[in-house]
Amino acid sequence: MKIRLLLFLWLMAGTGYIWAQQRVKHPPTRPFELSGIVRDSLTGELISNAAIRLNFDKSGLYTDSTGTFTIMLSKADYTVVISRLGYRPHRLKLTLDQNIHLDVKLLNVAKELEEVVISTQAVDQNVARPLLGVTQLNIKTIKRLPAILGEVDVLRSLQMLPGVTSVGEASNGVNIRGGAVDQNLILLDDAPIFNPTHLFGLFSVFPPDAVSSMELYKGTAPARFGGRAASVLDISMANPSLDKFKLQGGISFVANRLTAEIPLVKEKVGLLITGRGAFNDFAFQWGPQKLKNIRASFGDAAAKLFWRINDKNTFSLSNYYSTDFFQTDLLGGIN
Predict the structure, then answer these.
(1) The whole model's pTM is what?
(2) CATH number of 134-237: 3.90.550.10, 3.30.70.660, 3.90.180.10, 2.170.130.10?
(3) Widest CA span of the chain, in angstroms?
């Protein structure tokens, strides 16, 4: 009993203070709201799809169609980068310890390029020539072709084209795709020419200095030309010069020609006059005695009055004259 009492007193004397220890838990941090609106600095227009990056992180968010954004974040220091294609990026640093609303204005740095106009044509305008078998020649091309006896011949130049053949030797008639000579329609400024040759088909009746261009329809011709079976040859006379006087001519073994372009009213009215004549009687004097009584000559003349009314309207008046003379008093054959 005595021992138990001493043990109890010893335990009571050695007992100290004992505190219960436990881990202190702080209350969780409340998230804060970071929101904002993004505008154009010049126009004030709301910018949609602007990228919002936090602390240079690749992930982030984008503004909606109204240019606004909202995100919940914990309390911390952040670096916010707001960017959009065509605008200078906007960077700012902030401490998020409360709800913050930003009003960001981005500077437009897009470079405005010069306008690019893309145009097209209607379907029917994409076809340069809806008709097949149409050939166009201008006078410059015709004059580069070989000339007979030094004289440029409009009809003979056609024989260089495919589908066009000569009627025969020393003849200027043409057969086009197998058609006869009288199946061809020949027009000079829309006036029909029924006899297009001089001296029984040796030379054409068209003065080369008065011709501007010609179109040969070897296939289907437009309805305005009628219904010729073989072809249509549409020849256009040249317009006179409206700014200065011009005079040109030529002398050859076949014929002599002279052309004058006279401006009557400068830049408004002009007159073209051309003439050609052949006096080949002397050629027969060098031949046999039976040929000395032969007389052969031809001539043609053309005139065109041109009036430029304005940029869209013109008036022209064309006149053409042709003559042939052939005489012989032979009673028998030439042999």
Answers:
(1) 0.53
(2) 2.170.130.10
(3) 194
| Residue extent(s) of CATH 2.170.130.10 domains in the chain | 134-237
Is residue 164 within 8 A of residue 145, CB to CB? The reply is: no
Q: What digits encode the pLDDT tens for the residues 173-224?
A: 777 877 777 778 888 888 888 888 877 777 788 888 888 888 888 877 777 8
pLDDT, residue 144, reads 77
**Three-state DSSP state, 195:** coil
Element holding 3 (H helix, E strand): helix 2-14
Q: Do 220 and 196 form a contact (C-beta atoms < 8 A)?
A: no
Phi first, then psi: give them for residue 31, nearest 5 degrees: -70, 150
pLDDT at residue 29, rounded to an integer: 64
pLDDT at residue 2 greater than cutoff 80: no
Q: Cβ neighbours of residue 334 under 8 Å, at least 6 residues apart?
A: 288, 290, 291
CA distance 198 to 328: 17
What fold characterizes domain 32-106? Immunoglobulin-like (2.60.40)
Sheet of strand 51-54, all strands in order from the earlier edge strand to the far edge: 60-62, 51-54, 76-83, 90-96
Residue 212 CA, distance from chain mean position: 25
Burial group, residue 55, by CB count within 10 angstroms (0-12, 13-18, 19+): exposed
CA distance 116 to 42: 25
8 A C-beta contact, residue 325 and residue 297: yes
Q: Give tens-digit pLDDT for 265-286.
A: 988 999 999 998 886 666 666 6
Q: Where in the chain is the domain with CATH 2.60.40.1120?
A: 32-106
What count of Cα atoms within 13 Å lies in the side-chain half-sphere of residue 155? 29
Distance CA 6, CA 11 (A): 9
